[in-house]
Amino acid sequence: MRDKILKSVESLEQSLIDLTSDLIRFPTINPPGEAYTPCAEFIGERLRKRGFSVEFARGEGTPGDTDRYPRTNVVARIEGNRPGACVHFNSHIDVVEAGEGWTLDPFAGIVKDGRVYGRGACDMKGGLAASIIAVEAYLEACPDFPGAIEISGTVDEESGGFGGVAYLASKGYFSKPRVDHVIIPEPLNKDRICLGHRGVWWAEIETKGEIAHGSMPFLGDCAVRHMGTVLEAFERDLFPALDRKQTTMPVVPEGARRSTLNLNSIHGGQTDDFRPGLPSPNVPDWCRLTIDRRFLLEEKIEDVKGEVVEILDRLKRERSKFDYEIRDVMEVRPTMTERDAPVVTAVAEGIRAIFDREPDYVISPGTYDQKHVARIGHLFDCIAYGPGILDLAHRPDEWVGIQDMIQSAQVMAIGLDLLLHGTAR
Questions:
Q1: Which of 40, 117, 211, 271 has the fewest Cβ atoms nearer than 10 Å?
Q2: What's the Cα-to-Cα distance from 134 to each of 15, 141, 193, 409, 411, rounded to whole Å?
Q3: Would the CATH topology of 2-197+334-420 be identical to that of 200-331?
């Protein structure tokens, strides 16, 4: 039966190439959320023709959702001929902006030298296409299957996933008894299984000041100077402390096996829409810093926040007129699926069968939609596995290898068969 499944995937190579190119041609750029609905409808129509029931679920009220840019998700399901587990393949359809530096049209889906090029080819329309082909090939080879299979195309992963997987999870789409196992075909390399990700805390720190005429700054209080002392304290005290924190989590790349802090953006003084090139005549009475703190399984979120607040409180005691506010933007705990979980062992067997080697088990340095499956859906039998080289994501001339997609689809089809028949141990 396994040979039949593998040959079925191979027979759909051209369909896989065409599907990947077609998906890339939808410019699902986030923000603002372009072309979500036509892309979701394209996926839904394809799967409906293959016997799936199809739902479209709009993430109404979620960040960015408007009538012009609706957060349209598609969920397709096909039932087997007897009861059993449900295996769900989830992929995000949104992509980041193309940016500069391309030598090819980023939304043409060009096939060249054994690769498919385009924005989202690697992250993660190649993975979406591979999962669809894996399921279609499996249904062709094994029409008499138990349980159920689901495929979803969801939105907004690149901006936190709130209109996509988070919204669907809040509605029960990623919880038992509906779903038992989830595979997210993110581009973590075809012979690696991603068990989870580091934690993240996004926050805004705002320092306060007093507005005055720029020619008489002594009459005001400069919020930007106050923020400068925050940055100085971070450099002196916080960054060295974070660098000393190490993890046993198999995070890739090596540099991410410690705690990190990124200073995402800083704004102060005139409003953000103040026209560039004009003078700013005022002492700034506010300055806002956005921070991105990535933390480890060994750390508690209370301690992560406390390290920052301790510095701010110390500055408030020591520096004249220093005052601040801090606002949480998002927090996600680290997650790591156990290596003996059914979805892990099933995909690992697929990797052994296709590549004749043991898989590498890794943790992603950044979060992806597994966070919502775990924290909202309370479903922990979830991994990321898919084609594509992570280093190519979000870069010019992004591509995914055709052979990589074929082999990943074969791995997914083998894993699917094991999970549906309850033989993954």
A1: 271
A2: 11, 11, 17, 5, 8
A3: no
Q: Where are the domains of the chain?
A: 2-197+334-420, 200-331
Cβ–Cβ contacts within 10 Å for residue 246, how many?
11
Residues 387, 132: Cα–Cα separation, whole Å: 13
Q: How many CA atoms lie within 13 A of 224 on its CB side?
A: 11
CA 148-150-155 angle, 5° bins: 165
| Catalytically active residues, by annotation | 94, 157
What letter would DSSP give residue 124? I
Contact present, 155 and 73 (Cβ < 8 Å)? yes
Query: Rounded to an integer, what distance in angstroms lies between the CA atom of residue 218 and that of residue 405?
Result: 64
The one-letter code for the residue type at 347 is: V
Cβ neighbour number for residue 334 with a 10 Å cutoff: 22
Helix (H, G, I), strand (E, B) or coil at 36: helix
Nearest alpha-carbon partner for 400 in 115, 91, 24: 115
Topology (CATH level 3) of domain 200-331: Alpha-Beta Plaits (3.30.70)
Q: How would you write the pLDDT of the chain (425 residues) with one tens digit per residue? A: 899 999 999 999 999 999 999 999 999 999 999 999 999 999 999 999 999 999 999 999 999 999 999 999 999 999 999 999 999 999 999 999 999 999 999 999 999 999 999 999 999 999 999 999 999 999 999 999 999 999 999 999 999 999 999 999 999 999 999 999 999 999 989 999 999 999 999 999 999 999 999 999 999 999 999 999 999 999 999 999 999 999 999 999 899 999 999 999 999 987 656 566 667 789 999 999 999 999 999 999 999 999 999 999 999 999 999 999 999 998 999 999 999 999 999 999 999 999 999 999 999 998 999 999 999 999 999 999 999 998 899 999 999 999 999 999 999 999 999 999 988 65
The fourth-level CATH superfamily of domain 2-197+334-420 is: Zn peptidases (3.40.630.10)
Contact of 176 with 95, CB cutoff 8 Å = no
User: Which of 375, 388, 383 shows the shortest CA–CA distance to 330?
Assistant: 375
Burial of 290 (0-12, 13-18, 19+ CB in 10 A): middle
